[in-house]
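Thread: quick sanity check before group meeting

JM: Hey all, I'm pulling together slides for Thursday and realized we never actually wrote out the predicted structure for the chain we discussed last week. Dropping the sequence here so it's in one place. If anyone has concerns about the input, flag it before I start.
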Amino acid sequence: MGKGNTPVILKGGFKMSEKSELNRQIKELFDQGLTYSEIGERLNIHQNTVGYHLRKMGLNNSQRIKKRGEKIKESYEQG
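JM (edit): ok, ran it. Output follows.
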């Protein structure tokens, strides 16, 4: 909250709580191994916006590829 309990509006018109929720949703989908494009389609945002938020959280595409490979390996081992 800003001065006088007014909501803080961030660049892009998001309120602070909305941006936090967006980051949570992006990270959740990223952890599931979805591509930037797939995440963007689900959240109705551009894939470049997805990449921006992930970079701000310290995550990148090579980490997503690694997670996706681990999930495929896990799935293969389970039969």
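AS: nice. The chain has a mean pLDDT of 77. The first helix runs from residue 16 to 31.
JM: adding both to the slides.
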